[in-house]
Specification:
The protein is an alpha+beta fold. The strands form eight sheets. Strands 4-7-2-1-12-14 form a six-stranded mixed sheet. Strands 8-9-10-15-13 form a five-stranded antiparallel sheet, with no helix packed on it. A five-stranded mixed sheet has the order 16-17-18-20-19, with helices on one face. Strand 1 and strand 2 form a beta hairpin. The two termini are 28 Å apart. Helix 7 crosses helix 10, helix 8 packs across helix 10 and helix 10 packs parallel to helix 12. The chain is built from 18 helices and 30 strands. The structure holds zinc ion (2 copies). The site of one zinc ion has 5 residues, from helix 7.
Length: 626
């Protein structure tokens, strides 16, 4: 495609695609100050510069909050006129001969979603610090770092090594996190793919050989499951800070994952599940992408109904990959499924907010009240369950000939490999119907777009399982808190007349520590596992800013727990279906390539109900080397 344009470009248009060079000067680590210079090539005299208001995570974050000042000057050094157009956009005059835009950013947002420069490291998601000329988002870009502290190395999925990083356009640039520090690293090759693991953590928290072994199993399982590897190089970037929140961020050629030392020690399995989830995102959401997110508009919310699929079903595949690489067993798999069902059913909002609505409302997640159980469900949670149920429905509808695995391979061939995007939930429904030959209208109407109660047993019966409920009395701290990104949780609800209320806890208080330990990812589980009547010690920061220590006795409440168990006397058929369900398909069978290997759009296939004629798939994609 790029070559075709060469002959039709006018010189003026061509100039807008001259490379944009960024220089990031690591000015002052103690004060987290970074100076950025953008070299604008000759071109239009008047240009606009935009700093994204969001990137990758579906929340408006207004990165401009941290831009201290901005200057522009021409080739001779003379200042150029600047006019601010809105909070994140500037207009610069007099750039016909090119010029330089300079600004300073305070970068101290920790975690995989952040941008941070301090004496320990520099870690950047570039969308948070690099503005783009609005007429040159497609231009090639380079990034050079200056004043890098001695001894620091650089890790990035972009080519360029220790020199200038190179990206073909802005979208790729901001999908490529960078880490500069004294990190540890290792590499491995799996089925022709080159994997680099970079760990920035205290040495006692970093077990590189074990981590490498785990990651190798995950990439083996997922590339085999997809029969695809659409990259040559992939970077895993880890931070294990002793005392901070946890999260992972997906990218097309890398992932950045942060897990606190406390979580790493209390539940090491979390690391494998986060890696399996983020790695699968390189297909689902990064390449198999809803039309509503392509191309991203960095200036406002990008609404999509498909996050239940892009996020939730990524978690479904994560669990399958962990099972198939023996990082969890079948008991653990069913236990996780049971917990997810319990989590969905225990939120009153599961009958008022659909999976699609939850996807649209992702942009509200930064507001603590939105996260209340009566207000919202999680598209991760319901999407995970829908992924399992869709898989079972496809298996049942096709008598075990097709599954979620073939659906993803179909989506990969039909959309990702052709640089096309799917039509949100409708696109998924049509693809799943085309692959399985099953009418899924009711499934999507009731459980994806609607809020009907899910008849779990109707789906689980195919594999000889059912969901039973048990009433349990568990300890209750008397409050609920919600958190956003790596931030500490904020109390959103205190039960009237509870011990917590009497102890002086208020909505709006920030939780700093529970039982003298910093608040980690699993703090709610840790509290829930405590015995009724035990004393809870909590350190909070009140809305006024004052910090206080509070103690109170844990109360109790009744909950309904779901457990997925085997039915009485399962048939051999059901046991066989379950074995198939738990096993990745080795011999690939696809119904997506009925016309002699030529994929046709799901829409076209739907109109023709052909008999299914399984045939070996051809996965001679550009990246996959058997
Ligand atoms: Zn770091
Ligand atoms: Zn995700």
């Amino acid at each position: 495609m790029a070559f075709a344009f060469l002959f039709t470009l006018s010189p003026a248009t061509a100039q807008t695609h001259s490379p944009i060079h960024y220089t990031i000067t690591l000015t002052n680590p103690a004060e987290h100050l970074v100076e950025i210079a953008i070299a604008i090539p000759p071109g239009p005299a008047q240009r606009e510069l935009q700093l994204p208001v969001w990137n990758a995570t579906y929340q408006i974050r207004d990165f401009v909050e941290y831009v201290q000042w901005l200057h522009a000057r021409g080739p001779s050094g003379a200042p150029l006129p600047i006019r601010k157009l809105n909070k994140s956009r500037w207009q610069i005059e007099g750039l016909a001969q090119g010029g330089t835009i300079e600004y300073e950013v305070l970068a101290d947002q920790p975690g995989p979603f952040g941008a941070q420069f301090n004496p320990e490291h520099a870690f950047f998601n570039f969308a948070e610090i690099l503005m783009y000329p609005t007429d040159a988002r497609d231009a090639p870009m380079t990034v050079r770092f200056a004043a890098v502290p001695t001894g620091w190395h650089m890790a990035s999925p972009l080519p360029g090594g220790q020199g200038d990083l190179q990206a073909p356009n802005y979208d790729t640039l901001v999908d490529s996190p960078v880490e500069l520090s004294q990190f540890q690293e290792s590499t491995f090759i799996e089925n022709g793919g080159h994997y680099r693991i970079v760990v920035h953590a205290a040495p006692d928290l970093s077990d590189l050989p074990r981590l490498t072994d785990t990651l190798r199993k995950i990439v083996h399982a997922e590339t085999a499951w997809m029969q695809d590897r659409p990259f040559q190089n992939y970077l895993f970037l880890f931070h294990f800070p002793p005392d901070r929140g946890d999260g992972g961020m997906e990218h097309a050629y890398s992932t950045a994952i942060e897990l606190s030392g406390a979580s790493l020690q209390s539940d090491p399995g979390q690391l494998a599940s986060m890696a399996a989830h983020e790695f699968f995102h390189l297909w689902n959401v990064k390449r198999i992408r809803p039309q509503t997110l392509a191309p991203p508009d960095y200036t406002r919310e990008n609404y999509t109904r498909a996050l239940w699929f892009s996020e939730g079903v990524t978690s479904t595949v994560e669990q399958y990959a962990l099972l198939q690489s023996h990082l969890i067993d079948e008991k653990g798999f069913l236990h996780n499924l049971s917990e997810e069902i319990t989590a969905l059913q225990s939120r009153p909002a599961h009958v008022t907010q659909s999976a699609e609505e939850s996807s649209l409302d992702a942009w509200l997640e930064k507001y603590p009240q939105y996260r209340q159980p009566g207000r919202s469900i999680s598209y991760y949670n319901k999407g995970f369950i829908l992924g399992i149920l869709l898989d079972l429905a496809m298996r049942q509808g096709s008598n075990d000939e097709t599954s979620l695995q073939e659906l993803f391979q179909y989506l990969n061939q039909t959309y990702a490999r052709k640089d096309r995007y799917f039509d949100d939930s409708e696109g998924i429904r049509k693809a799943a119907e085309a692959v399985s030959g099953t009418d899924l209208t009711t499934f999507f109407n009731k459980y994806v777009a609607g809020t009907d109660e899910i008849p779990y047993d109707d789906f689980l019966a195919w594999v000889g399982l059912r969901a039973v409920t048990r009433e349990k009395t568990i300890s209750d701290p008397g409050f609920r808190a919600a958190r956003n990104f790596a931030l500490v949780p904020v109390v959103v609800y205190v039960q009237p007349d509870s011990n917590a209320a009497h102890a002086g806890l208020h909505p709006g208080d920030t939780l700093l520590a529970v039982d003298d330990a910093p608040v980690s990812r699993d703090y709610e589980t840790r509290i829930a596992n405590r015995t009724i009547g035990e004393v809870l010690h909590v350190r909070i920061r009140a809305a006024s800013g004052a910090e206080r220590d509070l103690t109170w006795k844990l109360g109790s409440r009744k909950t309904l727990d779901y457990e997925v168990i085997e039915i009485e006397n399962p048939t051999l058929q059901q046991l066989l279906h379950r074995r198939n369900w738990f096993t990745a398909r080795e011999a690939k069978v696809t119904h997506a390539q009925l016309d002699g290997g030529t994929s046709v759009p799901a829409r076209a296939q739907l109109n023709t109900s052909r008999p299914r004629s399984p045939q070996p798939a051809h996965f001679a994609g550009k990246g996959w080397q058997p």
